[in-house]
Amino acid sequence: MNYKTLLVDDHAIVLDGLQSLLSEDQDFEVIAKVNSGNFALAHIRSTSLSLMITDYSMPDMNGLELVRQAKSMAPDLKIIVLSMHEDGQVVQDLLLAGIDGYVLKKYTHQELLQAVRVVKQGGQYWSPEINKILIRGISKAEEGPNLTDREIEVLKLLMQELTSKEIAGKLFISERTVETHRKNLLRKTNSSGTVGLVKYAYANKLV
Amino acid sequence: MNYKTLLVDDHAIVLDGLQSLLSEDQDFEVIAKVNSGNFALAHIRSTSLSLMITDYSMPDMNGLELVRQAKSMAPDLKIIVLSMHEDGQVVQDLLLAGIDGYVLKKYTHQELLQAVRVVKQGGQYWSPEINKILIRGISKAEEGPNLTDREIEVLKLLMQELTSKEIAGKLFISERTVETHRKNLLRKTNSSGTVGLVKYAYANKLV
DNA sequence: ATGTAAATCAGTATTTCTACTGACGGACCT
DNA sequence: AGGTCCGTCAGTAGAAATACTGATTTACAT
User: Helix, strand, or coil here: B126?
Assistant: First the structure.
């Protein structure tokens, strides 16, 4: 089987590295190396490709946009994304866009080879960290309002299904004080009750 | 690196097949083939193993139970589960139990070899269908099996930070009824309060 | 037809949470 | 020395949630 492969990265050195890596496997034929998303799309439009390996961060277009346009033009094109992001939102968007592999840059060599082979066989490959994110489910990495240390402490105990009284006992403070912290948490998170606090905790990875 | 491997399956023919498959890779040393969960646990207890490849369906113990006990005895033991189940719940439980690979029986040969190599390198491997389940899990609602439609409805409204009274108004039912649903939700999710319900909703993608 | 499960509703009691007002000492910064 | 934020605590009130007891109707499957 001959696997026509397109490499996309804005650093020439990376492109060369990828090519030499792929040369270890006869099945892969690197038909082009390009350094921008638009060049990549041009190739996809004009040539029948099997696989694209692309960086996520690029000058003219981010990886997500490239993947979406590529998939809309060539739904059968396999796509492996190289990235240094372990950010849940980025990963989630890419997975939903239909990529077949996601390899963190810190691994590359051996693991990328594994990834391309898996993908060639119709499988999908994610770096270990990505699998963790998948398994755990995904939460956004957003900065929220500034909670004080004590408030965060209370919130974390709240997440363990403790009542205010139990939290007070655990922190050796009065129930009143815990209620004050809760009150401030409600205000700072613009929520109207316990549900909002838990949702905030999830959204901010305080789980 | 020498990878001490234990094979678990209640069909001798499968065990033989696995062994011959692994013989293709010098790194793996099959130190035992057993046909039941309890025999497997005995080996894990007495020997220092690196990898266990196990069937999911077995006479004395299901795969999930085996995995849990194995992991509690030997947390560093890598585990690959062979199964014909593509059922979401089964998969989810196994993943949360900490397995490193899940290969559907319909693939076995080439793919299993891929899987063991990935796992040997510290990675994780899932069959394509499993990846789909994982991805679906992050985008769509994977419902817990035991909740009724109405309970799910109430839970979803609860997640929108509505009080029981507001939910009652929205569903044109009495506050009492909403409280009954909440009570049943608490029981079914083994939680002690609102926090637990929200956490359950997140864990089951009812957000 | 009989049984099981779901969905609906009620009373009573207790606990927990939220709303409001107000306060005091300490740390830190200017 | 004065301002601001943090963490601490209090009283009073009411709203909401949880714990227990139950019940009726409908619907669906055995």
Answer: strand
